[in-house]
Design brief:
There is one protein chain. The chain is α/β, with parallel strands linked by helices and 273 residues long. Helices cover 56% and strands 13% of the residues. The protein contains twelve helices and eight strands. An eight-stranded mixed beta sheet has the order 3-2-1-4-5-6-7-8, sandwiched between helices. The two termini are 36 Å apart.
Length: 273
């Protein structure tokens, strides 16, 4: 990759993405990150060797790719302040701000097409998944470059309609919290059955990790993997029968639907601000 990348915002996700790109061979000096917090800039320069600046316009001025990594509530003012300099060069613009529609960002930037990305928290460990949507005006080469950049912290999945990004947010953006809650509940159940907190937590975490690895690597769908570890009349069947009897499937569908609806509400609210 030869492109110069300018990050607007130097928070955890920007730091992770920059680190992933450097690990994949991008020269640190091809990255410039802007942030208003001096300590943040100092840490980025020290830890990653990237160029830093407190000025968003400096970070965006000569960049081939501009990644908007600011808080959603700050994105409009930041985008509008960058509109004039970006229109002169029209770089690839990628937004990783949650809950802001690409069409609104494009409007704030004065018509520059945007690739919208929804990474999730495991991207901080380089094992995330990112949902991507590109406006029709974004050319194929720019889409490929956006995917290459986000691949630095995990895998990427494209959706064909921007409205589907609300579902992406609900499934994978919020998804880690569902798994953390499940691990938390299994740990608590183990303790209630007499295990020590240390042993119960280790069993719960390692089981979640191993199961995730199996699901990721297997050609079988998760439903088949579940059946493979569910012996008729056994302990697993007893647990699953109890969950099914109490509507666990319906409950999860309702919960994830609520997350998707909230994502759509936030996009509407923030887009009008």
């Amino acid at each position: 990759m030869r492109e110069t990348i300018g990050f607007i915002g130097g928070g955890n996700m920007a730091r992770s993405l920059a680190g992933g790109l450097i690990a994949r061979g991008l020269a640190a000096q091809q990255i410039i990150i802007s942030d208003p917090v001096p300590a943040q800039l100092e840490a980025l320069a020290t830890q990653l060797g990237v160029r830093t600046t407190p000025d968003n316009n400096v970070a965006a001025k000569d960049a081939d790719v501009v990644i908007l990594a600011v808080k959603p509530q700050d994105l409009r003012s930041v985008a509008e302040s960058l509109a004039t300099p970006l229109q002169a060069r029209r770089p690839l613009v990628i937004s990783i701000a949650a809950g802001i529609r690409g069409s609104d960002i494009e409007r704030w930037l004065g018509g520059i097409p945007v690739v919208r990305a929804m990474p999730n928290r495991p991207a901080l460990q380089n094992c995330g998944v990112t949902g991507l949507y590109a406006a029709p005006a974004v050319p194929a080469a720019a889409r490929a470059l956006a995917a290459e950049i986000l691949d630095a912290v995990g895998v990427t999945v494209w959706v064909s309609e921007e409205a589907q990004m609300d579902a992406v947010t609900a499934v994978s953006g919020s998804g880690p919290a569902y798994f953390f809650l499940l691990v938390e509940m299994i740990e608590a159940a183990g303790i209630s059955l007499g295990l020590s907190a240390e042993v119960s937590r280790r069993l719960a975490i390692e089981t979640a990790y191993g199961s995730g690895c199996m699901a990721r690597e297997s050609v079988d769908p998760p439903a088949d993997l579940r059946k493979q570890v569910t012996s008729k009349g056994g302990t697993t069947e007893a647990a699953l029968r109890h969950l099914e009897a109490h509507g666990v499937r319906s409950l999860f569908t309702q919960a994830i639907t609520a997350a998707a609806q909230r994502s759509a509400e936030m996009a509407e609210q923030l887009g009008k601000q």
